[in-house]
Each structure stands twice: as C-alpha cells, then as structure tokens.
Amino acid sequence: MQILDKKTDFNFMSKRKIAAVFSILLLLSSITSLLMQGLNFGIDFTGGTMIELSYKEEVKLESIRSTLEKNGYGDAIVQNFGSIHDVLIRLPILETENMAELSNEIVATLQSGNESKIDVRRVEFVGPQVGEELTEQGGLAMLYALIGILIYVSLRFEYRFAIGSVVALVHDVLLTLGFFSILQLEFDLTVLAAILAIIGYSLNDTIVVFDRIRETFLKMRKGTSEVIVNRALNDTLSRTLMTSATTLLVVTSLFFFGGEVIHAFSIALMLGIVVGTYSSVYIASNTILSMGVSKADLMPPEKEGDQDINEDGSQV
Amino acid sequence: MNRNPMWKNVLVIAVIFLGGFFAMPNLYDKDAAVQVSAGRYGKVDLALMSKVELALKAQSVAYIGAELQGDRLLVRLADSTTQLKAKKILDETIKGDYTIALNLASTTPSWLSGMGAEAMNLGLDLRGGVHFLMDVDMDAAIKKALEGLASEFRGLLRDEKIRYKRIQTEADQVIIGFRNSEHRDMALAKISSEYKDLVVEAQNMGTTPSLVIRLTEVTIRETKTTALQQNIITLRNRINELGVAEPTVQQQGDSRIVVQLPGVQDTAQAKKILGGTATLEFRLVDFEHDVQDAVKGRVPATSKIYYHRDGRPYLLQKRVMLTGDHIINSGSTLDSETGTPTVSVTLDGKGARIFSKVTGDNIGNPMAVVLIESKTEVRKVGGKLTKVKRTDAKIISVATIRDQLSKKFQITGLDSGAEASELALLLRAGALAAPIEIVEERTVGPSLGQDNIDKGFQSVMIGFAFVLVFMVIWYRVFGAVANIALTANLILIVALLSLLQATLTLPGIAGIVLTVGMAVDANVLIFERIREELRLGNSPQASIDVGYSKAFSTIADANITTLIAAVVLFGFGTGSIKGFAVTLSLGILTSMFTAIMGTRAVVNSLYGGKHRPKLSI
Fold it and tell me: Quick one: which H or E segment has residue A177?
C-alpha cells in the first residue's frame, strides 16, 4: 500500500514563519509554566517515601487518611493508583528518628488487624541527598548528550546543521518539560529516561532529514535553498510518517498494556515522538535556512562528506 | 544481479542460529526452590539430602526433586505456597547449622546449560525483592581510626613512662598535651619512629606543650577504602545469616554500597540487621574516683561517665579492655540458672590473650559491658531538616571479675530473647567498620513483580504484532522480509542479554519495545529509497542495490547519534535507567545487523537471480 504514491510536493517552508511563531508561543508558555510552577517532581528527585498497597476489598481513602493522621503521619498524601483496590501513599522527608524505617511503620500501622487483606506492592524511599544528586546528574546527563551530539553532527555535517539539530532538541525537551509542568504530571526517573530517549529519537529524525538536504543541495543544480529544502523534506516525508507511525504504535501499546508504573514514561515518549517529528521539519530545517546555508557551504565537502558522496555515486 | 557472496549468507544464518540457541533457555520457566547451604558447622552432602527429604516427606510436602549443586542443596517445589511451607519445615529441623533461602531454580536442560546457554536474570522489579543503597559514614571511619590511635598512644606513653596531661581527638587530628616540653620531645621522637605514616608536629596549645598528630592523605584514603571493603564483607556475612539466595553486594562510587536481596519480603528485619551497628566494649570500672563527683563535673582525665540502662551512672576507664572486633562467634541462650537471656561469646586468639591478661590482673575488680549503637536522625535545626548523628553507649551489665576469663564467656543483662539473638547475630557477622545509612530503598512485592512481567511481555507482543501487520500492509513482500528481520532482532537482543547475563528490568523491556519501533526505521529508509529509484525508472535490480547503499550512511548516522544518547544514559545510570540504556544500545546494534545484512540476504535470494523481477514493495 502506498498512500504517498506520487511524489509529494508540499511547500513546507512557505509556512516556516507561521511555524516559527507557533513554536515560539509554545516555548514561551512552557518556559513561563516551568518558571512559575515548575515541575511536579516525584520522590526520585525530592526524596521521600512512597508506598503502593493493594487491598482485597474496595478501599476508603478517608479511613486510611484518618488512621494515618491519628498515628502522626498527617503529612501523608493518599490517593488511588490505577484501580479502586490500589492505594498510593506518599510522604515527604520528615523530622524523624529513622527515615528509612518510616515505610515499615506505616505498613505495620495500616496492616494491624487485617494483614491478610493488604498486599504491599511496592515501597520506594529516597533520601534527600540522593534526590539532590539525581537532579544534578540528570541535568548534566542532558547537557552531555547535547554536547556529544553537537560534536558528532559538526564533524559529519557542518556547524549550521549541528546548531539546527541542537535547537530542535532543546525545543523538543523544553516542550515536553513544559507539558509536564502545565499539567503538573509527576516527573520521575522514568520520565527523565524518556526525555533522553526523545533526544535520541528526535535526533535520529533530524539526521535523516539533514542527510537528505545535504544530498539534495549537491544534486540539484538549480533552485533556491528554500526549494531544495522543500524537495528534501518531500522526499523523506513518507519515511518520516512511516517511522513515526510504527514507533507511536509500540509506545501506545506500552501506554495501554505496560501498566501504571510506566504510564508517565509512555506519555512523555508519545509527546516526544510527535514533537520530534514536527521539529525535524520546522525547527531544524528552519534554523539552517535562517542561518543561510547554501550550496556553496556544502560544495567543498569535508573529508567524511567526500567519501560518502563517492560511495553514494550521487555526486555530479 | 544481486547475489550475496556465500560467506555473507553463512554469516547471517550462523548469527541467527546462535542467537536462537542462546535465547532458548528463556523459554523454560523457573522452578520455585528452597536452597540449603552450609553454615558454620553444617556440611552439605548426601546425608543432609536424605535428612531434608525425610523431613519433607514426614510433613507430606510434595517436592519435584532434590539435587546437590556444589556446596548447596536445591529442593525444587511445585509452587510458591509449597515453597514457603518447605522453608518453614527446614527452618525448624536444620536451621542453625545451615542457611535456608528461597530461590528460583533453572530448568534449562543440561545440554543447553552445558554449552553455556543460560536464561537472562530477572531484575528485582520483575521477580520481587528489595534494593538498598547505603551510604557509609566516612567521617565516622576516620574518627574511629583516630580514636584507635589515641588509645594506642595512651598505652605507648604509659609503657615508656612519658607523662602526658591529656589525649584527645579533634576533627582530623589527635592532640596530646604534656606537662613539659621535655616529655613532649621524648614522645615526639618515640611516636615519629613508631608511626612512620603519620604527620607529627610539636605545637604549643596556649601554654601547654603539645603534639598534633594527623593522618596523611594516603592513610585517609586507605582508611576509607578499608572501611568500605570491611563493610561489604560484614554486609555479606549478615545477609548469609538472613538466608537470601543470590544476593548482590556491590560498591558504588567512593562511599556507597548497593545491596539487592531478591525475594526478601520482610524489609523491616532486613533493615534492622543490615544497618545494625550494635557492638560491645569491655571496660574496667574506675573505682578510685567517686562517681557523684564526676557527675558534678570533676571527671578524671583517664575516665568517662557511662550510664547503665537502668539510669545509674558509672565511671569507666577510657582505655578499652577489649572491643567487639575480637569476637569470632556468638550465640544466644537462656541462662540455665536464672532463665534470663544471655549471649555466649567466643574470642579470637589475640582477643583471648588480651582478655585473659587484663582479667587476670584485675580479679576482684568490677568490669562493665557497654553496648554501642550509632543512629542517624533527621531533626529540624534552624528551620532546616538536617541529619544528626548520635552514638548511644549504654552499659548492659557490670560484674565483678571472679576468674581469669579467656576464650569463651557469657554476657547477661539483655532485655529480651529477641535482643539477645539479634546481638548474637551482629557479633557473629562482625561489626561494621563505619556506620551505614540507607539512603534509598526500592522494594517490589511478588505480586507486582509478576504483574510487571505479564504486562511487559504483553506490551512487547502487542506492539510487535502491530508493527508486523503495519509493515506487511505497507511494503508487502518487502514488509514480510522486514518482519523476519525484526523477529530475528528480538531473538538476538534476548540472546545477547542472556549471554552477557545481564539483568532484565521493566525499563529494560521498555527499551526493547522502543527498539522494535525504531528497528524498522532502517528498513523503512531502505524501502523508501528502492521505491524512489523504481519511480525514477531504474531497473529492479539496480533499485535494490542503490536503495541499500544510499540508505546506509543515513542509517549509520542516525543510529550512531541515538547510540550517543544511550551511552550517556548508561553513564548517568542508576539501576533502572541503566537497564533501559543497555537494551536500547544492544537493540540499535543488532538492528543494524538484521535490518541491513539480514534483509539484504533474504531479498537477494528472493529476487537476486531473476532478470527483471517484479518487486512487491
């Protein structure tokens, strides 16, 4: 089956100003939200205790809350998790004798009298300094990934392409973070992993488009830069849609069948795939056009480029 | 013509065959099992096996089989309920001499395992268990080393008849104050010659001629490394006492230890035992000075006030007779006469020598047993939550030395039988060189573990099926070829994970799912190129060839950049993220092989020989 059987000829770049405005608006609202209300960090980053319990019978959150309050755990946040039988209890870092044993005390309190009816599904405790280190390392990891990519793309292409791809990545990461901030979805370790995976995915997409843009620049004798970029985008359109579709399919399957624990992860990935695909076209390509990339810049190719073109046999 | 050289086809077939072989053990489910390993006095042999089998038969517990594996005995059981029942029975019959733990036993046929094929490990989030990250208190390790030195100096100066006013430890140094500079210089000469790895400086503290003794950088580093290693050994011993099959105890970074205990559910007990700092000190009671005077503030330089559990103060000598480090074995019993809980203690050779000399010299004098525990608590200091470390030293018994004690003796004064057996366990397993603090815990219950396996497997399969259908609709025969490659890719990932004996976690499964989505990208790139070439009017054979070669550099670029992100993830990784990074990187590598070489081999054999084949793409 081929939906895009004929060569498509959309004029993507004619909308580039509108797209730029659109992206800037989205970015501004993301940044505003990040500055105003920040991210709803999970205990991985803030430190604290989280307990997931499964009750045999339907649970009344109120009674759990009052039991906890009576026993001096008034700070606990109690909510359902996935179903009416499952409960998630969260506690911040408290002033206490031994933080690490808090979870055992709470479980014992709730279980007293009906051990058989409550199943401890999961307990997570993260001490304050571990959370701090993680936040720092997470930020550094993102920075290192971006720098590594910047270097690789500069070597393989040209500095404008490197900047274009990194601008697109920053755009994708900021929008995903903004989404989590605006909706105040919980931001935990798995979401951080998802964001790093998005960096990988979005980049993959951008590189494929850039590869084609470079090739088209060298192949087409006539045409403005804008026409050439349009041609390259159309040539890769079918592939772009196809790959996004298959990846979205599996991530959707993760979202629906992977369980509650992996929900935030799959939401981040779904969003990232859509944004990453969009950004390859409208952010990455837009950036290199705005920076005035031209045929002449690519003509005296670097060593790596040279070899590739010879291999391709596409050099004129 | 598109013909593959023979070696390429052979390589593809060989790799996939090997992949299938090494992935195969994962098809066999594991048996619930109880594992018996030798404790201090037990021996694992055929006699034990028949004893175990008899005990199980007596309670009519059906077991699948029992087998000796090296130094352990493995009893396979039908399910986890009988597994728990069997453990309980064995706990009652042979506990003490043996360590009994729940485990999962591989059912891989011997012809497979004999060739090195084993199933991959399941992470704690899939099989249930507890993960602890522990922080070793390095300041305390240094402090302890300094206090050890201070105590040695006391002995040395006394033996050399050098008079000093006081010895104290302060931050990272030991300070000795002398009555006059003559004695100070004698001490300087003596200490510098005996302790070559210390920095010894003469200073005047006010009017007091003093020596300031510091550890060198190298010694500090060594002390820290030793403390960490010592703690790892102690934790291993303690875990053995708890009875856990296949525990992991590993160093992480400069001052942390990761402990993973698969299958452990009672985390409260695990925390208490692992973090337990209880140790003993034996000190002589200073009966030359008055306790009440000391409480009022006139504490003699050589003594210190300690409190008994019942609240009474005692004046004990600063010099320790013996520390818990010299205890090599201990057990808890009830005293045959009084019926109170007691702990019996066995000392090592050096400890026995020291102890018999000191007790021999002090017959008729009182001696105190001090129980020392260190704790960390979070307190509000100036509106901020801060951690405060506290050492609890309580006298548990004071008794008059009636006889010269040596290798074996008993300690009374414990609150309960439970306290006695816990103290015995901690003494037996050895003391921690420095206190540890649990800074992270992740516990997954068995029901959630099974859920995670089911859901993970389900989402891989459903996502995989979606992609297969999609590819066939889109690219027809070529889509089917890509599907074969995708299946091979999945098998290769599982095979590599099994070969590396990597641990599969839930994020790891997510990584596999993501790879499935991205692995087809390479094929999409190639197929779209072939379509393009066909549209340009090129011959089918040329289109295939050009399609593959043109797509290659794009695929390589795209995958290398993703690999960079995955490697960064791995480097940053704490446990769960590492699992994701590993499967993602492996998936990228195997997909390059299957999607390019694998599909090319199939496509060539389908179309390669024909003159002008009609491509179904």
Answer: helix A159-182
Chain B CB contacts of A152 below 8 Å: 560-561, 564
User: Is there a contact between A249 and B506 if contact means CB atoms under 8 Å apart?
Assistant: no
Give residue-wise pLDDT tens across range B50-104.
888 888 888 888 888 888 887 888 899 888 778 888 888 887 787 667 778 888 8
CB B506 within 8 A of CB A262: yes
From the CB of residue A39, how many other CB atoms can be counted at a distance below 10 Å?
17
On whether both A160 and A291 belong to a single domain, the answer is yes
ipTM given for this complex? 0.83
Strands B384-400 vs B366-381: parallel, antiparallel or unpaired: antiparallel
Cα diameter, chain A:
83
Q: Shortest Cα distance from A210 to chain B (angstroms)? A: 9
The answer as to whether A7 is a domain residue is no
Q: Is residue A245 part of a domain?
A: yes
Q: Which domain holds residue A120?
A: 48-126
pLDDT digits (tens, 9 = 90+) for B446-488: 888 888 888 888 888 898 999 999 999 999 999 999 999 999 9
Comparing CA positions, the residue from B328, B367, B320 lying closest to residue B347 is: B328
Residue with the two structure tokens 């960064």: B568
Chain B residue numbers with beta carbons less than 8 Å from the beta carbon of A93 are: 378, 385
Last residue of a domain, one of A93, A126, A159: A126
Domains recognised in chain B with CATH numbers? 6-25+445-607 (1.20.1640.10), 31-105 (3.30.70.260), 138-219 (3.30.1360), 276-441 (3.30.1360.200)
Region B134-157: what's the mean pLDDT?
87
In the predicted model, is pLDDT for residue A307 greater than 50?
no
Number of domains in chain A: 2
Q: Tell me, yes or no, whether A233 and A295 share the same domain.
A: yes
For B482-516, b/e burial (b = at least 16 CB within 10 A) is bbebbebbbbbbbbbbbbeebbbbbbbbbbbbbbb
CB B392 within 8 A of CB B373: yes
β-strand partners of A227? none
Residue among A236, A261, A312 whose CB faces B550 most closely:
A312
Residues A89 and A189 in one domain: no
Confidence at residue B491, expressed as pLDDT on a 0 to 100 scale: 94
Show which of A126, A147, A182 is a domain's final residue.
Answer: A126
Query: Using CA atoms, how far apart are residues B268 and B519, in angstroms rounded to an integer?
Result: 44
Q: Is the dihedral of CA B148, B152, B157, B163 positive or negative?
A: positive
**pLDDT tens-digit series, residues B342-377:** 888 888 888 888 888 888 888 888 889 898 887 766
Global pTM value: 0.79
pLDDT in tens, A69-121: 888 888 889 988 878 888 999 988 877 667 778 888 888 888 886 766 788 88
Asked if the model's pLDDT at residue B573 lies above 90, the reply is no
Residues 6+ away with beta carbon under 8 Å from B19: B488, B491, B492, B494, B495, B496
CATH of the domain at A210: 1.20.1640.10
Same domain, A66 and A80: yes
Which of B265, B470, B513, B515 should we substitute to test contact with A (largest number of A Cβ atoms within 10 Å)?
A: B513
Which stretch of DSSP H or E encloses residue B233?
A: helix B217-242
Q: What is the CATH number of the domain that holds A96?
A: 3.30.70.3400
Q: Output the CA torsion sign for A187, A188, A189, A191.
A: negative
pLDDT-derived band at A306 (thresholds 50, 70, 90) equals very low
Strands B279-285 and B313-323: antiparallel
Q: Is A73 on the interface with B (CB under 8 A)?
A: no
Q: Do A203 and B565 count as a contact with CB atoms less than 8 A apart?
A: yes
Cβ of residue A146 closer than 8 Å to a chain B Cβ: no
Question: Which chain A residues contact residue B564 at CB under 8 A?
Answer: 145, 148-149, 152, 200
Residue A59 forms part of a structural domain: yes
Query: Scanning the structure block, which residue is given the tokens 């399910």?
Result: B79
